[in-house]
């Protein structure tokens, strides 16, 4: 899979520029689009899956311009929107069968085989008879993935899939996506949860206010913060001073003091030592130092 995006902008009729001049190349595997709420992730995804047109710029998928080959492109894509909802009167398998009727020309027997295969793949075979709207939040999200997979897409576009899920469901969901990406499905995943990207994606971009703030590998983003992540253990008074001055990423109480990790360009306190950065540190660093967003 090869997706080439050049100079992409989306300005809504009210004048709001949700995507600004985005250039991205997305290849096979799992690609993560990271960014805070309102960064333009959903606008980008909706444009990519041809649900809305761009104001300017181009998107080529497998060399095909999405404006000229809309039907062909749509047949290649499975999409799970952020606000995916169910028809309330259908059982879990019936819902998926309905989606299969819309998306495929399969005969009933083959459709039902496919439905059960997909339910099994996303761990919902046990609850196939349960009403779809009675599934838990995580199960609904997994049924959403099954529905997006029903037409055997080459590209799966998933908008904020793990928001609101408990940690167990989040891990389960990530594992399903990892399995899929091994099976020749390219996945583009948008999220504001750093852990979704660090545990699954080899390539990523960070969007902020509609612009690409970083593109590359998660390791590449982490490299940029190396030397700027510090750990220091302080009493109440000094800790309050530090907290008011720097972005504190984590705090653990240790024997009446505070062990804090924080982001700072230079050593923030004589006792502070550098620690190995992770993607969460890099995210905070980018938001603060590169983009001027104050998190203090
Ligand atoms: N149809 C629209 N008309 C006008 N403004 C819009 C429209 N859709 C989105 N926006 C605005 O564009 C910006 C980007 O929104 P978008 O939903 O793409 O961001 P996001 O990164 O997906 O954030 P979230 O996770 O909060 O949905 C926001 O300021 C939003 O209010």
Q: Record the strand order, biggest sheet.
A: 6-7-8-3-9-10
What's the level 1 CATH class of the domain at 3-88 and 147-216? Answer: Alpha Beta
> How many individual β-strands?
14
The mean pLDDT is: 91
Largest sheet: 6 strands, mixed
Rg calc = 22 Å
The topology string of helices and strands comes to EEEHEEHEHHHEHEHEEHEHEEEH
Question: TL;DR of this structure?
Answer:
This protein has helices at 41-48, 70-76, 92-103, 108-121, 137-149, 167-182, 194-198, 218-223, 236-245, 279-290, and strands at residues 3-11, 17-26, 30-34, 56-61, 64-65, 77-80, 155-159, 186-191, 203-208, 211-216, 229-234, 247-254, 257-263, 273-274. The protein contains ten helices and 14 strands. The protein starts with a strand and ends in a 6-residue tail after the last helix.
Give an account of the 3D structure.
The protein is 35% helix and 28% strand. It is α/β, with parallel strands linked by helices and 296 residues long. Among the domains are: 3-88 and 147-216, Rossmann fold (3-Layer(aba) Sandwich); 227-276, no CATH class. Bound molecules: adenosine-5'-triphosphate. Adenosine-5'-triphosphate binds next to helix 1. The site of adenosine-5'-triphosphate has 13 residues, from helix 1.
């Amino acid at each position: 899979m090869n997706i080439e995006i050049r100079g992409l902008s989306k300005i809504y009729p009210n004048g709001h520029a949700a995507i600004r001049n985005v250039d991205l190349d997305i290849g096979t595997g799992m690609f993560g689009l990271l960014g805070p709420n309102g960064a333009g992730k959903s606008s980008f995804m909706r444009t990519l899956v041809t649900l809305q047109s761009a104001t300017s710029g181009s998107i080529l998928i497998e060399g095909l311009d999405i404006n000229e080959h809309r039907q062909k492109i749509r047949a290649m894509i499975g999409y799970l929107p952020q606000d995916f909802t169910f028809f309330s009167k259908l059982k879990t398998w019936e819902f998926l069968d309905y989606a299969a009727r819309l998306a495929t020309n399969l005969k009933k027997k083959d459709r039902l085989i496919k439905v059960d295969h997909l339910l099994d793949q996303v761990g919902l075979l046990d609850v196939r008879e349960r009403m779809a709207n009675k599934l838990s939040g995580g199960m609904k999200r997994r049924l959403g993935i099954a529905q997006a997979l029903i037409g055997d897409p080459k590209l799966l576009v998933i908008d904020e899939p793990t928001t609101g899920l408990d940690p167990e469901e989040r891990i389960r969901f990530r594992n399903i996506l990892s399995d899929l990406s091994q099976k020749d499905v390219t996945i583009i995943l948008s999220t504001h949860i750093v852990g979704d990207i660090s545990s699954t994606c080899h390539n990523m971009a960070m969007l902020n206010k509609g612009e690409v703030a970083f593109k590359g590998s998660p390791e590449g983003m982490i490299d940029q913060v190396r030397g700027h992540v510090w750990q220091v253990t302080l009493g109440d008074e000094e800790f309050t001073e530090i907290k008011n001055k720097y972005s504190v990423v984590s705090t653990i109480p240790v024997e009446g003091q505070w062990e804090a990790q924080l982001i700072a360009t230079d050593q923030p306190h004589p006792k502070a030592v550098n620690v190995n950065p992770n993607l969460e540190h890099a995210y905070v660093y980018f938001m603060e130092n590169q983009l001027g967003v104050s998190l203090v």
